[in-house]
Structure formats: structure tokens, C-alpha cells
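task queued by scheduler; priority normal; single chain, no ligands, no partner chains; default sampling; output format set to C-alpha cells
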Amino acid sequence: MYRRTLLGTVGTAGVAGCLTSDTEGSDDDVSDGHNESSGDAGDSPDNGIDGRDSDSDDEDGREPPKTDEEFETPDPDFETIHKIGEAEPIAIEAKPDREYEYIEAEETVRIQDSRGETRELSFDEWGTRQALSAAESHVISLLEDEDVGSMIDVGIGGPGLSEVSNKDVDESDFDREGESSIVVSHTTLYTQTGEKHDEPAIGFEYLVELIPTKIEVTMLFDEREYTAVLPVLCHREWAQPH
């Protein structure tokens, strides 16, 4: 899964290195060139976040990077769970946000990916990808309007619908090529020593109430319209610098 950070970031400044999370990493094929972003929350040299110690005897005043064995695994006071949004479904229209070549005889499109390579997709797969991109942007705008604060981000990918814990959902409730969803992540950040460092300003259950169950996206391509119905999931997780 890939993510676009909303108003904040999991990788805050003062958190050295990459992050260990309870979720899997990005899916370049789904992202279509989007990358997870990173923000800045100020320096905290002595709080244990980046392993620094002002009393260190090293020449640069820092301790050597921690090894895997030295990290303390956090003990969150919550479960890692997935819930589908509980607000009313919404419908939007959107135009494609990138160039493509339509091959009418084969009902396919040709695009250039983030690596500069040419790829050919079925029109339905292309339509779903563009619908996911439009829905993702819409959810970001929705949350910005609600001023939810940092440590919330929105992405494409996510778990299967069988992992949703708050409602019985079925693939027949949706209409898309593949199984990707819009995923809104609610992330609590822990230090290398396993202590809580930062968390979203809003509770997870409140986030679930804000998010629509699904988004119907009608893509207005020049050739014809394409409609996808996409699930929107909320994911509660933790992350730790590594």
C-alpha cells in the first residue's frame, strides 16, 4: 500500500531512520507514481526518539545506531484493527489526472509509469486506478475540512474486506477491477525505547464515523464514462523508527 500524508506524518523529524510498522509496505504497481511523504515536527535530540545522548563519548556527540536487538517493542493499549467507514456513501465525478493513450480496438490504454516504462492496461483497470486516485483526493479534502490534525494519512491498497471488524461487508457491495480500497490510517508513533511519542488528535472511532462506507466515482474520460464503487477502510496501527 502507498500513502499520501494528511497534515502530518508518521516519520516526524527527530525520528531517525526508517519506520518499523505493524503493516506492510507500499505497492508500486498500485501507486502509479505516488510516494509516501514525510513532514517535520521539530527536533527532539534528548527524548530517545533518534537514539541520541548528549553525554555520549562519540566524537559527534551521538550514540551509534541501535541494532535490532536493542529496540524495545511497543506495547500499545489498543488492537491493530480495520473498520469500514460508517458515514453515508457518497458519489463524485472526476476527470483523469494523467495522460494516457486509448487503444480502441483492444479496449486498453497505454501509460508511462513512474520509472519511465510504458505499460498497457485494460480500460477497466485504468478506470479503477483513476477512480481510486480521485477518491483518495476527495477523502483527503474531507478530512482537511474537518481539521483532524496530524498522524492521519490516506492511501490506496489495504487489507481484504474479510479483515473488517465492525460490519459484514461483501465484494458484491462494490464495483471495481481488483481488490484495492481507500485506506485511512490512524497511526500512533512510538520511540525506539517503546514509549509513546505522538498520536492523532482525534480518536479512531471518531475517524470511522467521519469516513463514508464507500465512494462511487464516475470518471469522465473523453472516450466514455467509467464508474467504480470503492470501499473506504480505516486502519488503526502503530509505528516505530528503525
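post-processing summary
- The helical segments are 28-31, 123-145, 204-210.
- Residues 123-145 form the longest helix (23 residues).
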